[in-house]
Task: inverse folding
């Protein structure tokens, strides 16, 4: 119940469209979203495939709450092998696509193969068509979405790529409802490699649950007592920009390619400066919070900028001009690239230039050149062609490896690990590379009341944070609802029609973490790749609480070893047979 | 009673539509809700709007069996007398009357005076106004 029980499979090599039953055993063990997507990916992908070949798959998953009134349940998850890292990749997106897919009658959509010509997949309940999209090829995400909305109805859910996805740029994103993105790991390049410009979905079927009165009673209480609380409501009033001041105070706000963790211009790019632009609020389906800050300045509109963009595109590039950040953000959204990686790449190029290692013609705070970057990178024009290959590629080719801020090839998000040692462990062990969504231990640590400059207890803290996110993102609840495991257990029990305890959820979370790890182990990833950039180990931060601090390499190694041990993995970071047996994998 | 939308407060979350279909039809399906909310970007602008029953009474006039009634500023339906002909569904200018898959007529009856869409709206965007009689 609450699942439709159906998987839609579209093969772009052959044009075949098939509907098959959802694997109920996997849905029991991995729920939906991230867990279910990675399980399907692990089972269906062959080892060692080229992520940009026909053998990769683009797997879209909803969750057990999608389409219901369960708070913050409207997101969609993608899974594929990442062209940026070669690891497993999951990436999620807001907007209305997920609910439309569920109302059309599908829990999962699997896209295989590669179309010969640019294609658009159109789903209307049982009717599924692969249409020609040659006329859209080359267009930005905004124009693509606008045109498809006019043709197929503005109420549909639309996913599309921009020129960057078409050109297989490894930092290409997928956009939806103009201003929302599944951004990381090159998920847009996977879609582009399939010559799939867009997916449009509209559904009109019912979503049912076993105990409607019970669910309504539970959810109504939760909305008022658990969602619309002072803690959560910061997401409504300010959204993620509220993190700028927190990060700057903790000394972990990436500044000038992570040379510093305190930015002198922070007060110009914080929540207050965004509030002055009078954003309008936009929510995803079934979200009582509504984090979207719709801002338009002249020709540039964004939902945001989100914290990660403010940090990487702002302070990390030495830019404190909020209008310039918004313009950069809007260009990234339209051309279809990830702002986190783009901000890292530009920051890296700036430092390379300033240090005289390689002249990319751009320096910290040079707004004029900076604003040209998203289009150059996304369209691979001029120096953008090289830059689009990411920080790891640039460092290997031109030097600067000690300040190439990436893990497993994925550029780092906006929390400097020298001021949050647990976050260093979270980045190093995240299955998709340098990522803050695998686990967010900094919330309790540098942003909470745990000493950030010790490794004591950090392996456990990080594992708990990772498991919390795994279960939340596999039930497909939004990051921004600080929901407890107990509440998640109550909700899933109500929707499944049988008791699912917190212990059962925790076991599933560990299983979901391990399936991601198994994917990477199968791809040949080893312990040595669970690491951080040299700068984190060697180059002390300059300001604020972490001034003079690094994350000492021997301390990091000890923390990592403890982490492997607690996870029941061998010294090479691979899950042991005993652990897999315990997790019924 | 009239229902009105404050388009500045509405975030487009659609909880009202989900709850309406759940309470009246026993399923989640925004297309079966007795109100409609639009929230989306058009030509680079966020456009928000809603459609509610405004007691135009097209449905009452169209109903061949007299199953739909208007009294005390609200509609009501006698499911027993409803022949499921669907004429009211077509007649409603806002497309907010539906026949559920089990043949129940879904119509905005203001939930007997305490509209669920009003009490569920997390940002007080839907308000009820008592019409002056």
Result:
């Amino acid at each position: 119940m609450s699942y439709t029980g159906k998987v839609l499979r579209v093969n772009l090599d052959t044009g075949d469209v098939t509907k098959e039953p959802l694997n109920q055993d996997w849905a029991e063990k991995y729920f939906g979203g991230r867990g279910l997507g990675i399980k399907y990916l692990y089972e269906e992908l062959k080892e060692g495939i080229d992520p940009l070949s026909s053998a990769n798959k683009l797997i879209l998953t909803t969750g057990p709450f999608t389409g219901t009134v369960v708070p913050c349940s409207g997101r969609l998850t993608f899974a594929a092998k990442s062209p940026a890292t070669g690891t497993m990749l999951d990436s999620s997106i807001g907007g209305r696509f997920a609910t439309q897919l569920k109302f059309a009658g599908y829990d999962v959509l699997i896209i295989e193969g590669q179309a010969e010509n640019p294609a658009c997949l159109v789903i209307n309940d049982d009717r599924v068509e692969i249409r020609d999209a040659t006329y859209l090829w080359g267009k930005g995400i905004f124009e693509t979405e606008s045109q498809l909305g006019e043709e197929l109805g503005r109420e549909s859910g639309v996913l599309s790529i921009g020129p960057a996805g078409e050109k297989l740029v490894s930092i290409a994103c997928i956009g939806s409802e103009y201003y929302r993105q599944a951004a990381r790991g090159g998920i847009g390049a996977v879609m582009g490699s399939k010559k799939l410009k867009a997916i449009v979905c509209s559904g009109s079927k019912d979503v049912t649950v076993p105990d409607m009165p019970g669910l309504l009673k539970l959810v109504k209480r939760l909305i008022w007592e658990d969602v619309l609380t002072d803690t959560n409501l910061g997401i409504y009033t300010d959204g993620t920009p509220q993190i700028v001041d927190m990060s700057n105070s903790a000394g972990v706000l990436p500044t000038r390619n992570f040379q510093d963790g305190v930015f002198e211009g922070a007060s110009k790019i914080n929540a207050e400066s965004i509030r002055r632009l009078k954003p309008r609020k936009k929510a995803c389906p079934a979200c009582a919070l509504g984090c979207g800050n719709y801002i338009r300045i002249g020709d540039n509109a964004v939902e945001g900028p989100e914290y990660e963009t403010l940090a990487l595109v702002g302070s990390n590039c030495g830019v404190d001009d909020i209008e310039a950040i918004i313009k950069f953000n809007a260009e990234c959204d339209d051309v279809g690239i990830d702002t986190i990686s783009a901000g890292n790449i530009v920051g890296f190029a700036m430092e390379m230039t300033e240090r005289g290692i390689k002249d990319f013609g751009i320096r910290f705070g040079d707004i004029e050149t900076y604003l040209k970057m998203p289009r150059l990178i996304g369209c691979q024009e001029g120096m953008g062609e090289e830059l689009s290959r990411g920080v790891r590629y640039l460092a290997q080719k031109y030097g600067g490896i000690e300040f190439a801020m990436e893990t497993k090839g994925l550029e780092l998000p906006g929390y400097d690990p020298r001021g949050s040692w647990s976050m260093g462990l979270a980045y190093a062990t995240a299955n998709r590379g340098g990522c803050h969504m695998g686990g967010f231990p900094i919330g309790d640590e540098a942003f909470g009341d745990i000493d950030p400059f010790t490794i004591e207890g950090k392996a456990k803290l990080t594992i708990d944070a990772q498991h919390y996110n795994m279960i939340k993102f596999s039930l497909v609840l939004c990051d921004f609802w600080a929901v407890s495991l107990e509440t998640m257990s109550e909700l899933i029990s109500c929707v499944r029609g049988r008791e699912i305890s917190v212990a059962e959820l925790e076991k599933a979370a560990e299983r979901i973490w391990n399936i991601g790890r198994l994917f990477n182990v199968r791809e040949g990833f080893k312990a040595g790749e669970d690491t951080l950039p040299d700068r984190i180990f060697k180059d002390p931060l300059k300001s604020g609480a972490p001034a003079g601090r690094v994350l000492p390499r021997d301390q990091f190694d000890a923390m990592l070893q403890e982490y492997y041990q607690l996870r029941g993995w061998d010294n090479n970071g691979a899950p042991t047979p005993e652990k897999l047996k315990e997790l019924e994998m | 009673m009239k229902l009105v939308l404050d388009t500045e407060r509405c975030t487009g979350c659609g909880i009202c539509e989900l709850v309406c279909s759940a309470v009246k039809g026993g399923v989640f399906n925004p297309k079966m809700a007795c109100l409609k909310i639009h929230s989306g970007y058009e030509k680079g602008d966020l456009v928000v709007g809603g459609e509610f029953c405004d007691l135009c009474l097209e449905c009452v006039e169209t109903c061949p069996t007299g199953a739909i009634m208007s009294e005390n500023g609200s509609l009501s339906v006698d499911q027993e007398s409803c022949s499921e002909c669907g004429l009211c569904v077509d007649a409603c200018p806002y497309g907010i009357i539906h026949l559920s898959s089990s043949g129940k007529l879904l119509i905005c009856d203001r939930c007997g005076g305490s509209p669920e869409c009003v009490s569920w709206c997390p940002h007080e965007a839907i308000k009820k106004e008592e019409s002056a009689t």
The longest strand of chain B covers residues 36-42. The CA atoms of residues 68 and 77 of chain B lie 5 Å apart. The helical segments of chain B are 15-25, 58-62, 87-91, 116-120. Chain B has one domain: 2-129.
